[in-house]
Amino acid sequence: MTTETTSVPTVAGPRKAARRRPEGSYTARVGRPGFVWAVPATVFFAVFAIAPLVMVAVLSFMSWNGLGAPRFVGMDNWNRVLDDPVMIQSVWLTLLVTVLGVVVQTPLSILLGVWAAGHQRNRAVLSVIYFIPLLLSATAVSVVWRALLDPNFGIPAQATWLFGDGNLFGRQATAIGVLAFVSTWQYTPFHTLIYQGAARAIPEVLYQAAEIDGAGRYRQFFHITLPQLRNSVITSMIIMIVGGLTTFETVLILTQGGPGTDTTISAYYMYQKAFKSYDFGAGAAIALVLVVAATVISLIVVRASGYDKMRSDMEGVS
């Protein structure tokens, strides 16, 4: 008697479901590029940034008038610079001009950038017209505004009811105001571009959800747009700070540090020391002070804002 054995199907143990990737996505995680990719930029930065900075640092301990061999004088240049009342005044003026630039340009750039990211009628044409100052050099812009604000033949001379005697460069307050105005006129379009790109990257679904909840345009701006622009604001502010600390051409052409030394900021004072008084050691010391100040202030802004903790899910992916 034969017995048939029926094979009982065995149930396989639970298997880990294969993770399906969406169509068009990367099949493997892409890591960071190797160090070799950074070698050309590293060499370029070392030759044209690090090496000159080291030379300036060495020169700040030397006495040199541009001829002959430099002579080591230790801390003499630093002592003279730090005890110079004009240098102390120039530091405060530099900080004042920088703060004015940040305070005026930041809200203006945000509003214009958010507006330019919209779909208003004739927006593209108006944006192109507004961005024209960004195409001009600081020297060209300063020359144009120097002519327009000339106390004898410019706009102030024709509108004495508004500008008084018309000499905007004859008083410290109005001269600093002119410097802040010209810088704002030229560089606000650049920062507007930053905010325009950032505003266009905000997901539209956030605004749709806010409309469903009954949020109006102003609430959407303050509760969605501004928080989403946070990292762009920090980036823009750092650029403004570094630009304000190194402003030179505008002061050279518009005020030449005057009246007296009332608009002599640190970068212009460095130029006077090095290329007018031929005291290159003192000029190098002032330049090093500017580099350290710009670096420290930028690091403080980054740390205080938490910008250094920002991470990207697409890091290393091209």
Automatic annotation (TrEMBL):
It holds the Pfam family BPD_transp_1. Residues 1-26 are annotated as: Disordered. SUPFAM superfamilies: MetI-like (SSF161098). Keywords: Cell membrane, Membrane, Transmembrane, Transmembrane helix, Transport. Residues 91-301 form the ABC transmembrane type-1 domain. The keyword Transmembrane applies. The keyword Cell membrane applies. It is found in: Cell membrane. The chain crosses the membrane at residues 35-62, 91-116, 128-148, 168-187, 233-254, 280-302. Belongs to the binding-protein-dependent transport system permease family. This is Carbohydrate ABC transporter permease. It comes from Streptomyces caeni.
